[in-house]
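Ex. 9. Protein: DNA-binding protein.
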Amino acid sequence: MNEPGKRRNSAERHEAIDVNDFVYAATGARVRRLTMPDGNHWFPAADVCKELGYTTTRKALLDHVPEEHRDNLETVTGSHSLGVPAGRSWRRDLQLIDLQGLILLVNACTKPACAPFKQWVAEVIETVQREGSYSLDEAEVQPAAAGAPIAYAMPDQVAEAIVRLEAHNLKLDEELAEGQRTSIALQKEMLSTQQATLAAQQATLAVQQAMVHALERIADRFDTLVLHQGGALGQLAPAPTTESVLADWRQRLSVTEGVWTVALVIAPVLVEKGELREPLESIAARTGLSVRRVNECLRLLRTHACIRSRGGAENGAPVYVLNRS
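Predicted structure tokens for DNA-binding protein:
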């Protein structure tokens, strides 16, 4: 984990800015570091926040690092000779923190998973403060390829922490996968239940519609039945005739000539068919009356309970039936 190369004394002054990386052996993550000519060290806040698990670098800095321990790259470097590689990763507005800021960020992190990184950072800070630099012991076996980077030995405590962390992560992955399988099964079960409920609702609607049609037919039939006064059920009055209907209407209202003309036309239809489904224009043509007069006569017959309305037909014509009491 680390900055390979020569160790520098903290009191030594530099002519230019040094750019070095600390390599965290637990994950291979690189924590960049700027060493200023005055010997002060600065670290990109994004590197540290990423390893500590902070969601937002800006919020982490505002919450845990005072202004005097953080700044941007352009302000920190000032007029010094800037020996940093060009590119997006070293933008002029890159947020930096000093050693105290680094300590504050590490101490503020409470996630158990970042404990190995916190331990390593503490070791780095202590070594840098004491010796001016930090380096690892080189591994016994080095890469054979020409130009390959130097391999460093991983401390035992860090290796043990990695093993524990990986085991914990594997367990979490298994629990997550099991939870996802359970969730999918529940969603399928809910979908099946919803489909069954919809089918039941459609069947219920069909039954209700059939009942409505049946009740309408019963109501039409019942209009032709009359129970004797105080009589027993099942003893039916004789079926109405045109003559009996007209006689009944004469008793119910004072019949004018126009009303009687309409009555003579519609009474036979009501008796024979049980209902009248004829446009007003047709009745007017048969009676020689105006449509308006025909409508007034029908309204008068309804008012005196001779007939009653049953809505409208498909062609828009009104539907009337006998009103038997």
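Check your answer against this statement. The chain has ten helices and eight strands.
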